[in-house]
Amino acid sequence: xxxxxxxxxxxxxxxxxxxxxxxxxxxxxxxxxxxxxxxxxxxxxxxxxxxxxxxxxxxxxxxxxxxxxxxxxxxxxxxxxxxxxxxxxxxxxxxxxxxxxxxxxxxxxxxxxxxxxxxxxxxxxxxxxxxxxxxxxxxxxxxxxxxxxxxxxxxxxxxxxxxxxxxxxxxxxxxxxxxxxxxxxxxxxxxxxxxxxxxxxxxxxxxxxxxxxxxxxxxxxxxxxxxxxxxxxxxxxxxxxxxxxxxxxxxxxxxxxxxxxxxxxxxxxxxxxxxxxxxxxxxxxxxxxxxxxxxxxxxxxxxxxxxxxxxxxxxxxxxxxxxxxxxxxxxxxxxxxxxxxxxxxxxxxxxxxxxxxxxxxxxxxxxxxxxxxxxxxxxxxxxxxxxxxxxxxxxxxxxxxxxxxxxxxxxxxxxxxxxxxxxxxxxxxxxxxxxxxxxxxxxxxxxxxxxxxxxxxxxxxxxxxxxxxxxxxxxxxxx
Length: 479
Prior knowledge:
Aldehyde Dehydrogenase, Chain A, domain 1; 2 domains; 36% helix; seven-stranded mixed beta sheet; alpha/beta; 479 residues; 15 helices; single chain; six-stranded mixed beta sheet
């Protein structure tokens, strides 16, 4: 049960939040419930004027917020944690409707909001002092100003708060732009924040790619924090370059999982499957390529297939499902392309159906492709859906090279009983976050970012705070 409510919030009406006030628009759009195909509530599309007003409000609010002592900023952030906790049931229901994810996973994401903010409140902004006979040098960090956060549709709440928490803690103002596919929870979270934070400190404007481009081009926005595809990330960087905005880009991945020959097959195989199919594979750090030692390949694959066949896929309201639908029709069509390609090339479907039956919702049964060639589309590209290839390996140097042979480097996993040996392999993988004996589970306690085309910079963790700050070095010479 949620704690008793202090406010009456309407979870069926949605607004942009500009300068602390709710704002509608004469242009509206709506999300689609991916489990039923039905239209959800109207949401306003922000105009360029709305965005300009939000930036102006952020600019006005920034100096006072920057000068608010960090302890007071933390106090307000923790006040928001208490407030958001009162609405966890409503936010969970809303997240189920807009994303299609099963209720227990939606509840985990909603609970993560409070956890994310609370962890950031345990951090302090680092400083350094250097002294010699002649001078003392103080390295301090100052906030950037008005930041923009562009959020994707796969984890609309946690990826919003992953930008808001460090931005506010470090003294910035921030404007969130949720995905038009999943606008609802992001709009509601920022609406709730108005009860706690001064007007203009945290705002939200909903809209399409055009609005995102305007945010990147705006001369009074100091930083863009973007999570999404590599192709869009390049456009964000190009637009932001015109004013030399700071950018943090967390982009797509093609994560490799290497299974060493000493694993406990029965225990590990289901975990590896979860890494590939959690959130229906719609995770930038989902396992996308599975490399199994040849001595256990057949047995390990069989255990993966056995577990995959038990996975229930369905509507969030249908009880104990592990997976929901693909979130939107565009992505659904894209994922179906991987099935069509794998079927046309005659690859072996170890689990799952090569033909996807259309239903009202965008449902796909989780699928394993057994040993497709290295140049196959399913190995080379990121499907962002519940379809994953497996391949055998025999030589550790060769499989590490195979795992690293990609333009991406977001996450990776190594599984083995000998933890020291597995960690040695992990250190050779070119990825921002490597997990030993776990599938990919990024946490706010460590910085999160990618190598190569998986992004630039990183956020979260203690070092992630610096992504929202400029170094400010004071050199004091002794008289």
